[in-house]
Specification:
It is a single chain. With 251 residues, the protein is an alpha+beta fold. The protein has a single domain, classed as 4-Layer Sandwich (CNF1/YfiH-like putative cysteine hydrolases). The chain is 20% helix and 23% strand. A six-stranded mixed β-sheet has the order 4-5-8-7-9-12. A five-stranded mixed β-sheet has the order 1-2-13-6-3. The chain has a two-stranded antiparallel sheet with strand order 10-11. A hairpin with a 5-residue loop joins β10 and β11. The longest helix is centred in the N-terminal third of the chain and has 15 residues. The protein is globular. The two termini are 30 Å apart.
């Protein structure tokens, strides 16, 4: 097992957090590395060990809490549920120290948010459907209800598929709403390509978040570092892993 590597965002400062690469971990085969996807078909024991290793690397002793992601816009306050009882949602928030919020991705955009002064954090899984439906807006609203203030919230967008590798259909723009065409560019095969990272950043800015850091890391192109659903599909691979993104509050 190689050493686990963590990507941290300057925008989140000293708040315990991390976007993880696939390096390290105990999974083998097509999902070799730090596969943290409970729905990946990997051995659940290995996945849980990978999730434990990631949590210990960010906030030792913290309780990791995730959701059953469904590409929607629901946000929940982190609770005491087990992995088998995860609610269906795509974002979660907490103001409780010792809790690590988790989302897993494999091309969709992971978004971590924090208001350190209020002691409120959020984690978001933003695929294009969730992003268009306002999943980041839901997370921000939940943070505000827990005492955060919009002018103090910082956000970071982690590894996601880049526009150059995200080909979509010609009618895709219709689902993006007014002004959505600015996030599309002509691709080499004559179809448009979608800039998911820029779209998510724009939604965050429109909601009033003034400090947004986009890491610009392409899950599709970087085979050694990241899992990618679209790359695995194009290659005809039997399954694909998921990288995890975590944020929490120290006690």
């Amino acid at each position: 097992m190689s050493e686990i590597e963590i990507i941290r965002a300057r925008a989140l400062g000293d708040v315990p957090h991390g976007f993880f690469w696939r390096r390290g971990g105990v999974s083998r085969g097509a999902v070799a590395g730090l596969n943290c996807g409970l729905g990946s078909g990997d051995d659940p024991k290995l996945v849980r060990e990978n999730r434990r290793l990631a949590a210990e690397a960010v906030l030792p002793g913290a309780r990791l809490v995730g959701v059953h992601q469904v590409h929607g816009n629901a946000c929940v306050v982190a609770g005491e549920w087990s992995d088998d009882e995860r609610p269906h949602a795509d974002a979660l928030v907490t103001e409780r120290p010792g809790v690590l919020l988790a989302v897993v991705t494999a091309d969709c955009a992971p978004v971590l948010l924090a208001d350190p002064s209020a002691g409120v954090v959020a984690a978001v899984h933003a695929g294009w459907r969730g992003a268009v439906a306002g999943v980041t807006d839901s997370a921000i609203a939940a943070m505000l209800r827990l005492g955060a203030r919009i002018e103090r919230i910082s956000a970071a967008i982690g590894p996601a598929i880049a526009q150059r590798n995200y080909e979509v259909d010609h009618d895709f723009a219709a689902g993006l709403g007014e002004g959505g065409e600015r996030f599309l560019a002509d691709g080499p095969a004559g179809k448009p390509h979608f800039d998911l990272e820029a779209f998510v950043a724009a939604r965050l800015a429109a909601a009033g978040v003034t400090r947004v850091e986009a890491l610009g890391l392409d899950t599709y192109a970087d085979v050694a570092r990241f899992y990618s659903y679209r790359r695995a599909t194009h290659r005809g691979e039997p399954t694909y892993g998921r990288q995890i993104s975590l944020i929490g509050l120290a006690g």
